[in-house]
Amino acid sequence: MNQEQIMALDNSLVWHPYSSIGSGLPVFPVASAQGVRLQLSDGRELIDGMSSWWCAIHGYNHPEMNLAIQEQLKQMSHVMFGGLTHQPAVELAAKLVEMTPQPLQTVFFADSGSVSVEVAMKMALQYWHSKGQPRKQRFLTIRNGYHGDTFGAMSVCDPVNGMHSIFSGAVAQQIFVDSPSCSFGKACSESDIAPMARELAEHHQQIAAVILEPIVQGAGGMRFYSADYLQQLRELCDSHGVLLILDEIATGFGRTGRMFACEHADISPDIMCVGKALTGGYMTLAATLTTREISETIADGEPGLFMHGPTFMANPLACSAGLASLRLLTDSPWHTRVSKIEISLYHGLEPCRELETVTDVRVLGAIGVVEMMEPVDMRTIQPALVEAGVWVRPFGRLIYLMPPYIMNDKDLNTLTAAVRDVINTIG
């Protein structure tokens, strides 16, 4: 098909994320991808500032990633995980346990980030059921969070300002408190932690777990908050007998400058969700890790097993991609690369602060955010960014960057300059 045929069929048949059929919003067909560049079918090249929604940390068409997939394909592309196992899954589980905070010792593989959150929530509920405390069935979280689009995950996303408010009558009703106003690098005041402390004191007998994104609230607003808040929250959960679930799907594997964002606070969760960069963007795969105490409690309780089992759980191709991605990451100077990206993003985006249409600029690790006064017009800003030679996907009032870790200074400068110019021109 030529480009016109592709676009005609796409417009009439295909749903895109958070869109409607025939919406008329700009869509750009990609012919290939290499390194940090996307090649459009019309021949234009774009520097990718999004890592394909934060997952392609090694860039595209990486020879070691390709080889891992090809070698696994010679053996088997898939086999059911019920009653069977295979080396890629076992090795990947061992690698994840090695990389994550020490108390996390067991791994449940899931198909996507949303599903890993569902698994984490079910783990928490089943744990307390096995402990003889079936009343602990609710979850406590902070506003402006995002944890996925499935029903359990939707219930702990922001119920008012999030993307799922029309489902508020259909999802489970959870407990929400205001997000901390203490910014990253600052201390957490008593007033910041007070709402969380109050709800835990009042409702801990009903609360199975607190769930939140550590340090960075992603799709709920790209907000960076204090590590001290996490430290105090960990202490509160322990004192009230409530589990702590950390959603590291967006923040995990180096994005914030630490391998996992919870390391900024020097804490460990009871349950952790990982995904996105897990396979370097090659295959859909996520994982939920927990402690041996939680795993054994579930095993000792009724019905004596964890009640979840996806058809494509621990897909061998995906696990092989995950192993290759994590080896590439841990064998690379990833911390130095992320630090250099942080410096480039700061120097490149900070001038936007002087623009009248901009309310804030913030950078942490390989994350750069320009927050606008008003929501952006996607019909205007997306084509303008493409015309400037970059792929950036704004949402709401946010124009943000999460580049691949392999991006060099020249491309980073081009990327941030394009954002500045577009905001200055049409912002």
Written description of the protein model:
The protein is of the alpha/beta class. It folds into 2 domains: 153 residues, Aspartate Aminotransferase, domain 1, CATH 3.90.1150.10; 266 residues, Aspartate Aminotransferase, domain 2 (3-Layer(aba) Sandwich), CATH 3.40.640.10. The protein is built from 13 helices and 16 strands. The strands form 4 sheets. Strands 4-12-11-10-7-5-6 form a 7-stranded mixed β-sheet, sandwiched between helices. The longest helix has 18 residues. It is globular, with a radius of gyration of 22 Å. The model has no long low-confidence stretch (mean pLDDT 96).
Itemize the secondary structure elements and their pairings.
Layout: H1 3-13, E1 30-34, E2 37-40, E3 45-48, H2 51-54, H3 63-75, H4 87-99, E4 104-110, H5 113-130, E5 138-142, H6 151-155, E6 175-177, H7 190-203, E7 207-212, E8 216-217, E9 223-224, H8 227-240, E10 243-247, E11 271-274, E12 286-291, H9 292-300, H10 316-331, H11 334-349, E13 358-364, E14 367-372, H12 378-387, E15 390-391, E16 398-401, H13 409-426
Parallel strand pairs: 3-15, 5-6, 5-7, 7-10, 10-11
Antiparallel strand pairs: 1-2, 2-3, 4-12, 8-9, 11-12, 13-14, 14-16
Helix pairs in contact: 3-10, 4-10, 5-9, 7-8, 11-13, 12-13
